[in-house]
Amino acid sequence: MLRFLTAGESHGPALTVIIEGMPAGVPLRADAIDADLRLRQRGHGRGGRMQIEHDTVEILGGVRHGATIGSPLALLIRNRDFANWRDAMVVEGNSADAVIAARAVHCPRPGHADLAGGLKYDVHDLRNIVERASARETAARMAAGSVARVLLREFDIEVHGQVRQIGSVVAAAGAVVSSDDPGWAAAAASPVRCADAQAGAAMVALIDAARFAKETVGGVFEIHAFGVPPGLGSHVHWDRRLDGLLAQALMSIPGVKGVEIGLGFAQAALYGSKVHDAIAWGNAAATVPCQRLTNHAGGLEGGISNGEPIVLRAVMKPLATVMQPLPSVDLRTKVAAEAHLERSDICVVPAASVVGEAMVAWVLAAALCEKCGGDTLVEMQRNYRGYLAQLAEY
Questions:
Q1: Nearest to residue 80, comparing CAs of 54, 104, 115?
Q2: pLDDT reading at 51 higher than 70
Q3: 223: which strand partners?
Q4: How many beta carbons lie within 10 A of that of residue 130, not counting itself?
Q5: b/e per residue, 207-217, with b = 16+ CB within 10 A?
Q6: At what angle do helices 30-41 and 138-153 cross, to 10 degrees?
Q7: What residues contact 218, with CB distance under 8 A and at least 6 apart?
Q8: pTM of the model as a whole
């Protein structure tokens, strides 16, 4: 089973990742992970933290001579901002009361984990909650997802993301059919990861207006996965359904409040004959000889990949830290107060699309390991070729 765990606080010394189940023989270099980490830090609307952090990964275990060796991978991403928080976030020993008080959080932010976490863990200084609930943790997920991407590329599976909406600005929906579509390069070059240049310019202007108004904005990002074979996931148990696993992975990204697959919510207004993908026979060049004529299902049927590109969208709410603080209460005095202000971004939808790619890549890599498992990359590839041969004879 392929799985990962992360640890670390937003302003602590570092973020750490442990990856278990990666087969031996997968080529892996720190600079490849670093390139993905840099993508997460880009995007119009990011705040001051991105001027401090220059994320790089240190591989501490599980790799030798540029390839995985089958043992758990240990990855470390240092927090440069820890230098400014060392006294308040000291791991051992005590800081001065004044230092602790200066960094304490007593007025929870509406829309954040502050109050819910404080109630759960019975703390009144919500700094403990703020630090771990912070989206800074997604840097560790990016590292895990980058490792997953390396494995997927060995099987010609590619994952791409783009922004479809920020605030009220909606990009034109182009027809994307392959991983080498020029729209992906256009999205990667855009400051808001939007392939529609006109909409992208309007998104930038909207973010600037939100910054001036001391507001935050959300949006929608879209993830496509190409080259995914049919048969990943399963219909036999609820927790093995690939659509459920993918939705959970995207919903776990801080700020994401909804996920749809394929046509998604639009299907509610359509007749069944306009929704379901008709099947045809005769494409000998394809992985399987039977193909869907459309892809309204987004590459997933019955909890199983069907061989078509996987298409998912996620909606992200506006960030909870608003520079015009919302009404809250002071947990010490139990009287009305303004919500706590923490350094924040204006819009992170472009960055969230990159994190979304990482999470989708991770789930697909885990599903591929389950389907074609082996202790080495060579064994997995041999099993995969056998499965493709089986599909071709279906």
A1: 54
A2: no
A3: 161, 312
A4: 24
A5: beebbeeebbb
A6: 130
A7: 166, 167, 255, 315, 316, 317, 318, 319, 347, 349
A8: 0.94
